[in-house]
Design a protein that fits this description.
Elements lengths: L1 H22 L8 H4 L10 H14 L1 H4 L23 H4 L3 H10 L14 H12 L4
Helix pairs in contact: 3-7, 6-7
Length: about 130
């Protein structure tokens, strides 16, 4: 009887620990060539920012939200952390890393080479995401 109780407790603890490990999202590894990639667009150009904002509103806002807090209208449908674009951790990433993540995607984050086939458009979205810093 004791061994059955012990096995039940071990099984319950294993289940609980497993559920916690599936909640934590794996680190998003960015290839070195992207980490070092330089943004070829003029980040300060107001027209570039406006285009980037328009593209963000069309492709990103529904999940990431108007201010980039990860609170868009579709955010509840997405598994994993949507990030907070205003945070220091997010803003500390290189432009190349953000470009890579936007381009390639992973899990529920789609890759955008079909929706935004022009690399420059994805760079302009990166520029706009920089304006969301607090």
């Amino acid at each position: 009887m004791k061994s059955l109780k012990l096995l039940s407790i071990i099984g319950l603890l294993t289940l609980i620990l497993y559920s916690f490990t599936t909640i934590v999202q794996e680190e998003w590894k960015v290839p070195e060539k992207y980490e070092k990639m330089k943004n070829p667009t003029n980040k300060a150009d107001k027209e570039n920012i406006a285009i980037g904002k328009s593209l963000y509103n069309k492709h990103c806002k529904s999940c990431h939200g108007k201010e980039g807090y990860g609170d868009g209208t579709k955010a509840d449908e997405v598994e994993g952390d949507l990030g907070d674009f205003s945070s220091a951790d997010f803003q500390a990433q290189s432009d190349g890393a953000l470009f890579y993540k936007t381009t390639e995607g992973r899990d529920d984050m789609p890759e955008y080479t079909k929706k935004m086939p022009d690399d420059e458009d994805r760079w302009l979205v990166v520029n706009y995401m920089r304006t969301l810093a607090e």
